[in-house]
Protein: histidine kinase
Amino acid sequence: MSTFRKLAAAVIVLFIAVIAGLNIYLLRSGDSGTYRVEAKRLADRIEETGSTDISGFPHLTGVYSGEQLYRSDEHYLIIEAGGKLYRVEYTTEGRNRTVWAVNCVLAALFLLILILLVYIRRNIIVPFGRLNTVPQELAKGNLAVPIPEEKSRLFGKFTWGVNLLREKIEGDRQKELSMQRDKKLLLLSLSHDIKTPLSAIKLNAKALARGLYKDEEKRRSAAESINSRADEIEHFVSEITKAASEDFMEFEVTQGEVFLSSILRRLSDRYAQQLAVSGTKFTIDRFDDCILSCDPDRLAECLQNLIENAVKYGDGRQIGLSFDKMDGCELITVSNTGCSLEEKELPQIFESFHRGSNAENVQGNGLGLFICKRLMSLMGGEIYADIREERFCVTLVVRLA
Structure:
């Protein structure tokens, strides 16, 4: 806020200085060039004809000589013609009109600047000042931070979006807490359930080890009991594995229709300049501008994930998008040079938290391709990857509308 005040004050002072300087210039110069030219022409006429008629000189108002040479309260200048001095009076009405017109224009501009500064302060600076601490509080985990409602069209949608973000963070926090609670209860329950068959296994194993069972039938029964209890433990372990492998992320997809060119325009706007700065050649092959049946935002998210992966795991020389059609679907392929992934790893790359052998020194969590696979499945499409001539290629199969 203080910075804006200083900037506004500097603008006002500068504009006032410009107005003052322009007025000084106009008052000093004015129409002096015009009336001096006319006075010179009048002197030439007097020199040639002796006539002091000023009807052809609109800026001159009178010509006097003799005793009246210096008796005047008007604007005048002295000229010499035919060895005689003359007082030539002139008018400044034209100059005054010019100064007045210029000042009116400058005053209107000054008023417009003041109105603009007030508008910016009231509709942008002040609302932003009330909101600038909200992201910090949300980052600290303070989801109860008040977010003031703004009627301004500039910030109304912004505050609405921040409120949605807060609700999303709160919802995710509640889901995480619920998952943690359920996981803890599951582990406690399974741990308790495992103890019973484990104790039976230990008792039977000790009895067999010490030779307490002399009868063959009892030894066989003890072995069968151990096997049965082991099956129970195996069942519990399977439940743990199943719980761990269940989806831990929820995805919402709103199916709709979108032109392919609209999706590609979003990608180009986001990545073309960024990749050009880093020296990566970004190419988009020729395509038919078809209508895709998908969630436009989710499809763009998938393509962004693939391009981000190409940036992280490629060699930085080239990233390209190519297109094909097959069985009523549009095939969109994102490829990058410098593939160091082995083909035997391709079946696992779409699993959650899986990271390939080429990700050793690259930050990540192994969820990008997993998310793409889940989203494409929910949109009725597919995704697959292959390696072609040392280029890593990931293809999205999107249904046509």
In short: The mean pLDDT is 82. The two ends are 51 Å apart (CA to CA). Strands lie at 60-64, 76-81, 84-90, 256-259, 281-284, 291-294, 318-326, 329-337, 382-388, 391-399. Residues 256-399 form a domain with the Heat Shock Protein 90 fold (CATH 3.30.565.10).
